[in-house]
Design goal:
The protein has about 160 residues and is an alpha+beta fold. The chain contains 4 helices and 6 strands, in the order αααβββββαβ.
Length: about 160
């Protein structure tokens, strides 16, 4: 779990940088996707300054087309020490705080969870994440922790 917590911490730093560099929906999203996706994954999985040993981590972006404003990642952390092996999976969602003009019907991202099989499903519980921002003043008050949620942590 400690590797996932380090990845979460690194994601918060990256979201803070994305907020500083972004000025609209598309620029924020492209910070985490498209050509930047490989670099983003490498930066968030980098724990070279920490003394964790015998751990592996794989991070992959998950595409869910009916959910706008949300970017999903799956984090799998493995620890191997002597005969001890443990794997933990967690899902991370990053909310895009900028508004996007869209008439498409969408699923509320707060209605999603992870099933036993690792698939994302709809929930009935609500999870409060800040609303979309519309001006620069709102952007200054927004914290990265308002936009990043770790959920569905379990041993596999």
């Amino acid at each position: 779990m400690s590797k996932i917590e380090l990845v979460y911490s690194n994601i918060l730093k990256e979201v803070e940088l994305a907020l500083e560099k972004s000025h609209d929906y598309d620029s924020f999203e492209s910070y985490f996707t498209e050509n930047n996706s490989y670099n983003f994954i490498n930066r968030i999985s980098n724990i070279s300054n920490v003394s964790l040993r015998d751990t592996q981590c794989s991070i992959q972006k998950i595409d869910y087309y009916n959910v706008e404003n949300i970017i999903y990642y799956r984090v799998l952390s493995k620890v191997e020490y002597n005969n001890f092996n443990k794997s933990i999976v967690a899902y991370i969602k990053i909310k895009n705080p900028f508004s996007k003009d869209s008439n498409n019907e969408q699923i509320d991202e707060n209605d999603l969870t992870v099933s036993e099989e690792g698939e994302i499903e709809q929930l009935t519980d609500k999870d409060n994440i800040s609303e979309n921002i519309n001006n620069q003043e709102d952007k200054k008050q927004l914290k990265p922790s308002d936009l990043v949620v770790v959920f569905g942590c379990k041993e596999v």
